Amino acid sequence: MSTTILFTIISLSAIGAGAAIILYFVAQKFKVYEDPRIDQVEEALPAANCGGCGYPGCRGFAEALVKADDISELYCPVGGNETMAAVAKILGKEVEAKEPLVAVVRCSGSQEHRKRVNQYDGASSCAISSSLYAGETDCQYGCLGLGDCVDACDFDAIYMDEKTGLPVVIDDNCTACGACVKACPNDIIELRKKNKKDRKIFVSCVNQDKGGIARKSCKVACIGCGKCVKVCPFDAITMENFLAYIDPNKCKLCRKCVTECPTGAILEINFPPRKVKEDTKDAKSEPKEALEKSENNSSTQKNKEG
Amino acid sequence: MNKLLTVSPSPHVYGDKTVKRLMFDVIIALLPALAFSIYFFGLGAIYVTLTAVVSCLAFEWLIQKYLLKQEPTISDGSAILTGLLLAFNVPTNLPVWIIIIGSLVAIGIGKMSFGGLGNNPFNPALVGRVFLLISFPVQMTSWPVPNGFNTGYTDAVTGATPLGVMKEGIDKGDAVSDIMGQIPSHMEMFYGHMGGSMGEIAALALLIGFAYLLIRKVITWHIPVSIIATITVFTGILWLINPEANADPVFHILTGGVLLGAIYMATDYVTSPMSVKGMWIYGIGIGVITVLIRVFGAYPEGVSFAILIMNAFVPLINIYLKPKRFGEEVNNG
Amino acid sequence: MLKTFAKGGVHPAESKYSASSVIENLPLPKTVSIPIAQHIGAPSKPVVQKGDKVKVGDIIAESAGFVSANIHSSVFGTVSKIDNVLDSTGYKKPCVIIDVEGDEWNENIEKLTDLKKEIGLTDKEIIQKINQSGIVGLGGATFPSHVKLSIPDGKKIDVLIINGVECEPYLTSDHRLMLEKSEEMLVGIQILMKALSVNRAIIGIENNKSDAIEHLSGLVKNYPGIEVQALKVKYPQGGEKQLIKALIKREVPSGGLPLDVGAVVHNVGTVFAVYEAVQKNKPLFERVVTVTGKSVKKPSNFMVRIGTPVNELIEAAGGLPEDTGKVISGGPMMGKALNALEAPVAKGTSGILILPEEMAKRKPESTCIRCAKCVSVCPQGLEPYLLNKLTQLEKNDMLEKNGVMDCIECGSCAFTCPAGLPLLDYIRLGKSRVSQIIRSRKQ
To answer: Cβ–Cβ contacts within 10 Å for residue C2, how many?
Structure first.
């Protein structure tokens, strides 16, 4: 072996060894002590870093979980009850199983039902359009169709239907993190209880105009007639500002309100088709009568809490 | 009125500048230089330019359509400009296959891999040029002697450029005044009668293009002036210290890629700073590094490297050298 | 060398089609819808109800705080309802709707239009009168004028600046006022000078109104303390910060107000309204509105009663052109596109601009090429490309650090951008997000 090679090996080894020793001492001196449980908890979390828990990323949530005495209020919507149970086991703390939720888009004002009365030519953002004016239709409450909700979703669980101009939620991918709810400037999307077989019953409208005005701007608007409130056997429906709302916790999915609604504002999703009885009038052919009823209602008619 | 009213946020009127118009203005500004180099180098200049432009367009179209699956944007003129500038940076006897490799690197690596127009940190034409220089040093440094349409293409007679002759001579220890006799005069260099890459030779043509760009408000004067001023001052100081071991500033300005680089390459929108303060520092940096490489470094030409090095600093420059805000100093209340 | 502001600015085509149209009184409409929120600050509280009879100049809504304004009826008639009407904000807002039944005025108003030069009120009484008369900034900002004139302790004002610049293309209402109501305006300036206790006033006028500059320069010889200054034509010369910088070379500090540099700025329309209020007891219920556009048959300047629907003005200017693409309330750089032509004229409506279809759509959008043209035209020294990107990435703390709250929303950046980027759309969004954060921080 020539002296050059020998010298090279010795000098480089010496440098390597010296650097390793320095690094070891520096690492020891500047070491940050962290509760090892934080790493364990972070391991159990789904690593989506979506912020649905309300904390900055999964690491932030792990720190909060370890620090908190009572973690029953903390919940990871992506991992769900399984993840929370695993975390509870690691930390020896208690959690309650929570109802799974899913995002629901409460507007049916598609191109077909809601006439366009002007053309928007600004930046493609619902936040920008809603701060500018009431939108391309006469309903200032409805979906603007520019996709801020789609941009906000980290889980590919929502997309814009080209034909209707409305967003569609893919229930299987939705983790109920709430990003789309926050993104919508008109508060159209709501996190509602996820039922068996993904069945849903909800008022697909957030229009607070008086019945006649609402119906003129959109054929399937809620006109505030109150028929659904009267027919619900479980007192699950309330009326405020000419708009009906179905409480997902009280609703038993009996579908009575759906047939009662004269404009078709209440939707039933993922139910089997019902047999049509020949002798009953189709409620959907009586919007005019219902309109008169809604004009007679006072503007803040609340249903009695059952 | 039958159609629906349009509603959008203000402003509701717009200026007439578009990306396409700006790109084509730069291409027009380069036409005098192209004309001069065809006059001096003949067919070689035409072949090189056509190959570079066509291959840049082709690569951009292919990459956008098939790799990135987007709508091709070759009509905005930026690929044509990259091709033209790449052609201007290489000798006119460069074989077609080398030019095509250069285009692929310039467009594919220099521009598309970063996200397309607007996202590249380095000047794509220079990325292509430097890649070729390092990969094919022999072909990239054999400069045809200008002989009009008798120059030929890959069979051209080659000779050294004035910059090359000066560098070798000084390294050998010859006196500058002796070397000056072996190279074209300042005036000849101004008109373009010298060896070099296509875009470097004709100072006059490049300056005509500069005037056009200023009038059309495509670029501002800050970057070119700061580069040229820095090089003048730096080489001037060296020359004053020892006029026999250092060439004069005018020589440095007229040879190599200083004018081409200062006016057309360093002012590339995407890779230059966004504020006037930043542009000055950028220009001074390019000037200093160019002179350092030319005088103390191994290469006779330093502009390409200098610009690429300063390109790397531009994000930092943009963070720290921001324009002066209105009402900034006073904030007592 | 004409004075101007040094930083930024653009040169949109002036298109002053209505510059030689004398101000006409628009015939009274059949109904008016007077919004109760036509100014910056708290919306006013209605003091009339359905069925009330009101005369021209009667108060119909009261100021709801210090930063608020009174609103007066602009017509004689009966209040038909107080309801939500689609107005120039783009949303349905509460308005007092009055059916017009004639033109009887409130007895206290002096209807004669002879020039009255004597100023009988003290400075405090003047400010009171301006407050009572519901006067707000008529340049478009609609800031309650009495608030601007109430100088807090510790601040000293030494100059009153009158904004006769009208830098927005197409608009000519201020131009015509300066030519036709010149002496009234000058008396109005004297009234404001008295209210502020200053003895120096400068009227800034852009050089494209050379007739107004000449005319006023001749008249101010009889009005000590008032001078006329011609300014280079550059947008946004009429922005108050840019105007102060051009005229007296002082820079309003970031986050500050003109009174921080000893100046107060008022628009010529406001000045004329002040004259009418103080000298003739006439509250603010009408204003000059320009109706213009390339295809408009009769570009005009109308004296319009507040609450008149916009389509009546368009009818009087020759009707809505066949090729209309966009109707704008205000000028083309900062005005608001209307989505309903029944929207009422409010105190801040300086003009109605009709753009033909070929001018109504934006340039196709491509990518930012980092040309820095937006940076070079921003009059506030900001970096619009950066503010745009930061808003899209929702980096609100960096937005604040980069001065997004200094943006005057002039639109020069979006005007210039070769890539057609909607810079101002996102910057405005960033501003609203940051201002919410700042507000919640203060609490």
So the answer is: 12
The model carries a pTM of: 0.91
Instruction: Give pLDDT tens digits for A93-112.
Output: 888 888 889 999 999 999 89
- Cβ <8 Å between B5 and A121: no
Minimal Cα–Cα distance from A134 to chain C, Å?
5
Q: A132 CB near a chain B CB, below 8 Å?
A: yes
State whether B17 and C416 contact (CB < 8 Å): yes
pLDDT of residue A31: 87
Contact yes or no for A119 and B9 at CB 8 A: no
B66 C-beta neighbours (distance < 10 Å), count? 9
Query: Is C362 at the interface with chain A, CB within 8 A?
Result: yes
Question: How far apart are alpha carbons A277 and C314 in whole angstroms?
Answer: 56
Average model confidence (pLDDT) across chain C? 95
Residues C363 and B21: their CA atoms lie apart, in Å, by 13
In chain C the domains, ranked by start, together with CATH numbers, are 1-23+106-361 (3.40.50.11540), 373-442 (no CATH)
CATH topology agreement for domains A36-91 and A101-191:
no
Chain A residues lying within 8 Å of B5, measured CB to CB: 118-119
**By C-alpha distance, which of B136, B238, A151, A130 is closest to C339?**
A130
Q: Which of A66-75, B277-286, C236-245 has the lowest mean pLDDT?
A: A66-75
Please name the member of C333, C381, C403 whose beta carbon is closest to the beta carbon of B13: C333
The answer to whether B207 touches B221, Cβ cutoff 8 Å, is no
CATH node for A195-306:
3.30.70.20
Name the residue ranges covered by the structural domains of chain A. Answer: 36-91, 101-191, 195-306
Q: Which CATH class for the A101-191 domain? A: alpha beta
Per-residue pLDDT tens over the stretch C358-384: 999 999 999 999 999 999 999 999 999
